[in-house]
Structure formats: structure tokens, C-alpha cells
Amino acid sequence: MNEAKFKRVLLKLSGEALSGKDGRGINAEVLQNIVDEVAQVTAMGVEVAIVVGGGNIWRGLGGTKNGISRTTGDSMGMLATVINSLAISDALNADGVKARVMTAINMEPVAEFYAAPKARRELEKGEVVVFGGGIGNPYFSTDTTAALRAAEIGADVILMAKNIDGVYDSDPKVNPNAKRFDAITYGEILAKGLKVMDATAASLCRDNNIAIFVFDMLTKGNIKKAVMGENIGTYIRSEEK
């Protein structure tokens, strides 16, 4: 099997994963591994959009414990996602893969202001588009951003790259007997209260029939394997089939 299962994907990266074992900031080796794999995927003709979190730099909810308002804290978090987006885009361009950043908050000339039609055109031309700044409003996670952007650009799937290899019925770090699901529906996730993503993102994906594939991003080669449809994680879909 050496063909892509999907034509257009939205890759959701966690900010924390970008820091690798450092815990904070951007780990150069992790960043390069992501760039190498995205380059392999685009070479297969797959159109790639990216949403990245900002938890390696700032987490909005954490700031509220130190006297910072939720609105301000979330705004700081949105700016952190732009920093990560710029790093990914720059590294891709340096590696010969055309990429650009589009932000939900107007901050030209740092990055382009987001427009769905333009994003779709650039994807069709083979450019990687990195979406920064969340959805431009507080109280929404980057999971919700990924769900919204995937719907707007018509992505075939959201590839949710995490530091765990799928969806489990309980925390595998706490319960050694935790069971990993090969496939599960959004209804089951919401009913069981599984913390894969926030409820807003899950509902948005369910209502728009957007599938998600959850997999471990820290295992080298997994992004390409996910694009090829290999069974390395958990497939989330709207209905039982």
C-alpha cells in the first residue's frame, strides 16, 4: 500500500508536542520531523492544511489563576499559535515546501488575514496553509478551530496528532488495562465523556460529517501512515457503518 487514502487533510498539531521532551518552546528536532513528513505527504499529491495549538508557549486557562482575565489569556494563547504557525511555515519553506500562514486576527504584514476561498485556492496549487490565531475569538479551543477550518476548506479528514496513539476508554497512563478503540462515533465520545476534544469541536465535526483520525505524532513516519489509512490510531466518525 503506497497510495494516499485522502486528497485534502487538516493536520491538527498540539503545541505541547512541538516542545518535545523540553516541555516548553519549540524543539528543533520535533519541528524538522514534522516538516520532513509533511514534505513526503505533499509529494504524494495530498493537500495539507495545518492547525497548531499554543500550549508550549502559553495556555489561556492557566493565566486566569494568576489574575489574568479569560479573554486576555485566550488572546495571548491565540498569539502563541501564530508563533508556532510561523515557525512551521518558515521551516517548510526552508525545506522547499511552499507554505503560508493565515490568521483569524488581522496582523499583516506578519501573516495573511484568513479567507476560506483563498485558502482553498492555495491548497489546490499545492501550498501548505497553516492557520494561526484560533478562530479569532476567546473561549474557543484550537480543536474547535480545526473543526471549523476543516469544514470551510472541505477537508476529507482531520488528522489529530497527539502524544498518545488513539482514543482509550480510560487514561492509559493511569490504567494499564485501558482499551484503545480502533473506531468510535462522536455520539459515543460525547456519551462516554471521553476527553478527545472539547464538546463544541466534537459536535461541529459530527454535524458536518467530518471524520477524525487520532494518532501518535511522536512516532516517526506516522503522519504519512495516517494519510495512507494505516491502522495506527482511532478513527472517529459521525455514524456507525
In short:
This protein has 241 residues and is of the alpha/beta class.
Description:
The chain is an alpha/beta fold. It has one domain: Carbamate kinase. It has 9 helices and 11 strands. It has helices spanning 15-18, 28-43, 60-63, 70-94, 116-124, 142-153, 186-192, 199-207, 222-227, and strands at 8-13, 47-52, 99-103, 112-113, 128-132, 157-162, 167-168, 180-181, 183-185, 211-216, 234-237. The strands form 2 sheets. The protein has a 9-stranded mixed beta sheet, sandwiched between helices. It has a two-stranded antiparallel ribbon with strand order 7-8. The longest helix is centred in the middle third of the chain and has 25 residues, at 70-94.
Write the layout of secondary structure elements.
Layout: E1 8-13, H1 15-18, H2 28-43, E2 47-52, H3 60-63, H4 70-94, E3 99-103, E4 112-113, H5 116-124, E5 128-132, H6 142-153, E6 157-162, E7 167-168, E8 180-181, E9 183-185, H7 186-192, H8 199-207, E10 211-216, H9 222-227, E11 234-237
Parallel strand pairs: 1-2, 1-6, 2-5, 3-4, 3-5, 6-10, 9-11
Antiparallel strand pairs: 7-8, 10-11
Helix pairs in contact: 2-4, 6-8, 7-8
Provide the residue-averaged pLDDT.
90
Helix tally? 9
Q: How many strands in all?
A: 11
CATH architecture group name: 3-Layer(aba) Sandwich
Query: Given the C-alpha coordinates, what overall shape results?
Result: globular
CATH class: Alpha Beta
Strand content: 15-25%
Overall structural domain count:
1
N- to C-terminal distance: 23 Å
Annotation keywords:
9 helices; nine-stranded mixed beta sheet; 241 residues; alpha/beta
